[in-house]
Amino acid sequence: PGKPSCPRFLKALPHSAGSEEMKPPVAYQKLKTPESPQELLPLAEQPGQTLRQFHGSVLGRPCHSVSGLRAAETPNRFTSILPWDFQCMLVTAILSTVLVVALVVHSFFFPLHSLATLGNVASAPHVDDGCSDSCRSVLVESIPEGVTYDDNSTVGLSTFETWQSLLRNARSSVDIASFYWTLSNQDTHTHDPSASQGEEVLTELLHATSRGVVLRIAVNPPSARMPSTDLQLLEKSGAQIRQVDLPRLTRGVLHSKFWIVDHLHVYLGSANMDWRALTQVKELGAAVYNCSCLAQDLGKMFEVYWTLGLPNATIPSPWPANYSTPYNKETPLELELNGTEAAVYFSSAPPALCAPGRTDDLQSLLSVIEGAQEFVYVAVMSYLPTMEFSHPRRFWPAIDDHF
């Protein structure tokens, strides 16, 4: 409840942002009601024009019916020279040519219109029956230095190795939604050797932009506790950065942490863009490879942040159709994940940032609890049935009641 912008994957990833000391303080402001949602809406398409109907004329009648008119017509040079069957064929050819030319001219001047628009019918979002990609998913985690496990324990791939692999293999684009950036010792005013992993990630990001990879970053506005040194360095190298002012828009923060690489690979987890999230804090996440269906759907959530990062942005209500999704808890995306049939969807919060079709985080979490048959395991940094960041704190039993 205190982190109002946190997508969930497979309805099961824990949401932890590290130790409480890592959390920068958040100054809340009065909620601003959207005043002009149209500012963010794309230009409305012009109404389609229907083809003109020819009624009460020869062109509007079938050829066989025209023969009945011959006796009443005054013979002219056209009808006396050409056989009637040839005249009928000629009229048909002329009409067909006019129709083709009209369609070509229409598509030239109105390239965005669909055939549905020609009849003034809004085209519905396309709903795929499933995903043909052979998606592969792995759990990734950060284990603090000094923490050891038994030899027979299951340990996931490291967050650091996963990030580095995604960046080194990026070909065209990397989109990152993030809370804050402190990847180096300089950012935290420390001299810890374990910060080297974060600094290597920053270096790899710079290498990516230098070879032409388009890097877009959506992040909270910087503050004294959330410096922008890393972001300034990346921006100078060519990265595109937008500060999403959710404190103004929703009295919350952008707390999401996910990556989308080449519109094909995805990382989603609890780790911040902080060197301590790689070596000092327990973190958990998932990486999904070769899964364009999931990457494109998560990309719609990134575009929500990207849009709200524009100057003086407001939250549209409702969100335009191009942000909507057909995948939710009622109709999840059916795909093959690690060779096994799976049903997946992304959820988001707060509801004001959920485009049509998107399940919000709370409903997703509650549906997991309601669907439990044997047990519910919970791994969180802290569990309190309160609104932690409200002043004063208030009782908030939504999840507690379901438990």
TrEMBL record:
<keyword id="KW-0269">Exonuclease</keyword>
<dbReference type="Pfam" id="PF00614">
    <property type="entry name" value="PLDc"/>
</dbReference>
<keyword id="KW-0677">Repeat</keyword>
<feature type="transmembrane region" description="Helical">
    <location>
        <begin position="86"/>
        <end position="110"/>
    </location>
</feature>
<comment type="similarity">
    <text>Belongs to the phospholipase D family.</text>
</comment>
<dbReference type="GO" id="GO:0004527">
    <property type="term" value="F:exonuclease activity"/>
</dbReference>
<dbReference type="InterPro" id="IPR032803">
    <property type="entry name" value="PLDc_3"/>
</dbReference>
<protein>
    <recommendedName>
        <fullName>5'-3' exonuclease PLD3</fullName>
        <ecNumber>3.1.16.1</ecNumber>
    </recommendedName>
</protein>
<keyword id="KW-0812">Transmembrane</keyword>
<feature type="domain" description="PLD phosphodiesterase">
    <location>
        <begin position="250"/>
        <end position="277"/>
    </location>
</feature>
<dbReference type="InterPro" id="IPR001736">
    <property type="entry name" value="PLipase_D/transphosphatidylase"/>
</dbReference>
<dbReference type="InterPro" id="IPR050874">
    <property type="entry name" value="Diverse_PLD-related"/>
</dbReference>
<keyword id="KW-1133">Transmembrane helix</keyword>
<keyword id="KW-0378">Hydrolase</keyword>
<keyword id="KW-0540">Nuclease</keyword>
<keyword id="KW-0472">Membrane</keyword>
<dbReference type="GO" id="GO:0043202">
    <property type="term" value="C:lysosomal lumen"/>
</dbReference>
<dbReference type="GO" id="GO:0031902">
    <property type="term" value="C:late endosome membrane"/>
</dbReference>
<dbReference type="Pfam" id="PF13918">
    <property type="entry name" value="PLDc_3"/>
</dbReference>
<dbReference type="GO" id="GO:0031901">
    <property type="term" value="C:early endosome membrane"/>
</dbReference>
